[in-house]
UniProtKB/TrEMBL annotation:
It comes from Ideonella dechloratans. GO terms for molecular function: DNA binding; metal ion binding. Pfam families: Trns_repr_metal. The lineage of its organism: Bacteria, Pseudomonadati, Pseudomonadota, Betaproteobacteria, Burkholderiales. Signal peptide: none annotated. GO terms for biological process: negative regulation of DNA-templated transcription. InterPro entries: Metal_Tscrpt_repr, Metal_Tscrpt_repr_sf. This is Metal/formaldehyde-sensitive transcriptional repressor. Belongs to the FrmR/RcnR family.
Length: 94
């Protein structure tokens, strides 16, 4: 969960964007939009949701496992491991 006011504002902004995409998709379904166009909008909505999920997960991992919890000599190694985990998770969330 984003803890700083700036992170919280960024997440809420992204959620509002996702909400707008979902509402546009609902209007498209009600209007009888072609499946190909609906699928394109669904893919965009999925990408936005996965991107937000990856950001929140990254924030959590850095907060839990990042250098703030490590002793100074271990901090760079721990940061590198968190970077590696984040890259791996982001690749799965595409």
């Amino acid at each position: 969960m984003p803890h700083s006011p700036a992170e919280r504002k960024r997440v809420v902004t992204r959620l509002r964007r996702i909400k707008g995409q979902a509402e546009a998709l609902e209007r498209a379904v009600e209007a009888g939009t072609e499946c190909v166009d609906l699928l394109q909008q669904l893919a965009a909505l999925r990408g936005a949701t996965y991107g937000l999920m990856a950001d929140v997960l990254e924030s959590h991992m850095r907060e839990t496992f990042g250098s703030a919890t490590a002793q100074p000599p271990d901090a760079p190694a721990q940061d590198a491991e968190v970077d590696h985990m984040v890259r791996m998770l982001r690749s799965f969330l595409r």
